[in-house]
Write a structure and sequence with these properties.
Radius of gyration: 24 Å
Number of strands: 22
Structural class: alpha/beta
Shape: globular
Largest sheet: 7 strands, mixed
Strand content: 15-25%
Bound molecules: NADPH dihydro-nicotinamide-adenine-dinucleotide phosphate
């Protein structure tokens, strides 16, 4: 190992601050505010301090966001000018990409290369993509068939929903924040954003860039703290018009119930247990590589992780031999080491959860053929980090929790199949419906399976690709609504139908 990259002074200084909330264009924190400690998952040691937000902080942020909706500097911006602000923000994200990626890697644990290319790369791409929409999301003129020979001009316009509460998770922190921010801002809303308490730092740095880009005060507000206080206060707040959430299905349910008070609009991007399928003609080595990447990317902490592998009996042994070999050779270490391919899990809590799933699989009769425990050859400074080996379980069945529940860690369950109808039945035998992957040269079969699978995204001969232009979301308990593309704009606007009697 070459060892972790040094932390530049600028990032050191950023980490050493006692971070407050970003409200109404200012950093604020009452002098007696309690702080939360953000830990470095690669060492288990202190990384930074962030403010533990209160209901009063959320109230302040919502008031600022409500006020900003009426500011001429925001309300009267032309669509092109709103797009220019988003472009400016994309440029700033690119300018500080290395710094943002380092902060993300230190705070979340993921390899720097992933943070730079995926998290931060996606962030500027999203702002750029959505910068084009304000001037293009048109209403319609609608041909009506009115009574009494009336002549009516009927047209629709899209208006902002208002104050958007965004609650995001820790797996892709700054990028998940941007999945909500970019379309919300493009459509003229204002936002109160709560990052996950474990990974707030990159979003706080993004808030600085939002100020630097010239967004008027109050258009974006960030309140840090716990889900049970700050998240719940946003979900319940009577002056928040919409809540956009990514996270667990359980918290999604709580948010939905809380949102009923003032009938907030709700969009939810929840968990998954995605089937990754290999047909008999697929190349076993290619399937093994894709299956490993599909589950071990981002330490398995990806909502679309290909966590259930279904391999046709004809190639099962070849795929599994290649996959086990790959899993055993993945370099696990601190994300800031350029040699690292898989970092630690985000928190000791997540490590405990994922480890207990492995135990439950073994108790239920599954067999561990790769990994299953903590790596033995970690550098001395990382022995208290939240590391887990890439793990593969076989002899698994659909009765087991490891097959039915989202583990959200580097744990793959593998199963054989023989009959296509039974395969589709197994693939759909899940409360989730987020994504699926299919590997084959037989495109007729691939399209047939793609049509039969209950999932918001189906990848054929590829996996885990996303693009700001393509809709993303889940069937069944994987969520409500779609992110990205034109589809998401509906989630951040109200459609008004205007009737003009021109008889
Ligand atoms: P949560 O769903 O608890 O967290 C997601 C976000 O919701 C965080 O910002 C969290 O705050 C916030 N939150 C927590 N409780 C509430 C509440 N009562 N009201 C409003 N907001 C709340 O996910 P976890 O972080 O606990 O992870 C648990 C499991 O969720 C994972 O193992 C995984 O299965 C799933 N998950 C799925 C994700 C996905 O992308 N689909 C992403 C993350 C998790 P805070 O963290 O600050 O407490």
């Amino acid at each position: 190992m070459t060892g972790p990259a040094p932390v530049p002074d600028r990032v050191r200084e950023f980490l050493s601050r006692d971070h407050g909330h970003y409200i109404d264009g200012h950093w604020q924190r009452s002098s007696d505010a309690a702080m939360l400690e953000s830990l470095n998952p690669a060492t288990g040691r202190h990384l930074a301090s962030i403010a533990r937000g209160t209901v009063a902080d959320v109230d302040d942020a919502v008031r600022a966001a409500r006020r900003a909706l009426t500011l001429p500097a925001w309300r009267e911006l032309t669509p092109l000018a709103r797009g220019e602000l988003l472009h400016r923000l994309a440029e700033l994200v690119d300018q500080y990409a290395d710094e943002l990626a380092l902060i993300e890697s230190l705070d979340n644990g993921k390899p720097m290369s992933v943070a730079r290319a995926v998290d931060v790369g996606t962030t500027s791409k999203l702002f750029r993509y959505f910068a084009g929409w304000p001037s293009k999301f048109e209403g319609s003129t609608i041909p009506l068939s009115p009574r009494n020979n009336l002549e009516i001009l009927n047209y629709t316009v899209h208006e902002p929903v208002g104050v958007v509460g965004a609650i995001v998770p820790w797996n892709f922190p700054v990028s998940m924040a941007t999945w909500k921010l970019a379309p919300a801002l493009a459509m003229g809303n204002t936002v109160v954003l709560k990052p996950a308490e474990d990974t707030s730092l990159s979003t706080l740095r993004l808030a600085e860039l939002i100020g630097e880009a010239g967004f008027p005060p109050g258009v974006v507000n960030v309140v840090t703290g716990t889900g049970s206080v700050v998240g719940a206060a946003i979900a319940e707040h009577p002056d928040v018009d919409k809540v956009a959430f990514t996270g667990s299905t359980e918290v999604g349910r709580m948010i939905t119930r809380a949102a009923l008070g003032n009938m907030k609009r709700v969009s939810l991007e929840l968990g998954g247990k995605s089937p990754h399928i290999a047909l008999p003609d697929a190349d076993p080595v290619e399937v093994a590589a894709a299956a490993a990447e599909g589950i071990f990317f981002n330490q398995g902490q990806t909502c679309t992780a290909g966590s259930r592998l279904y391999v046709h009996n004809d190639i099962y042994d070849d795929v599994m031999n290649a996959l086990i070999d790959r899993a055993r050779n993945i370099r696990v270490g601190p994300g800031t080491d350029p040699q690292t391919q898989m970092g630690p899990l985000v928190s000791s809590r997540q490590l405990a959860t994922v480890s207990s799933y492995i135990d439950s699989g073994v108790e239920d009769g599954a067999v561990v053929v790769a990994g299953g425990g903590r790596p033995v050859d970690l550098p001395a400074g990382n022995v208290d980090g939240y590391f887990l080996e890439p793990t593969v379980l076989v002899e698994t069945t659909h009765r087991m929790r490891v097959v039915r529940e989202e583990i959200f860690g580097p744990v793959l369950v593998a199963m054989r199949w023989n009959d296509l109808d039974e395969l589709v039945e197994m693939a759909n035998d899940s409360p989730y419906g987020l994504a699926a992957g299919i590997w084959t040269g037989d495109l007729r079969a691939a399209h047939r399976i793609a049509g039969a699978i209950q999932a918001g995204t189906v990848w054929i001969n590829c996996y885990n690709l996303t693009d700001p232009a393509s809709p993303f979301g889940g069937f069944k308990q994987s969520g409500w609504g779609r992110e990205m593309g034109r589809a998401v704009l509906e989630q951040y606007t109200e459609t008004k139908s205007v009737w003009v009697n021109i008889t």
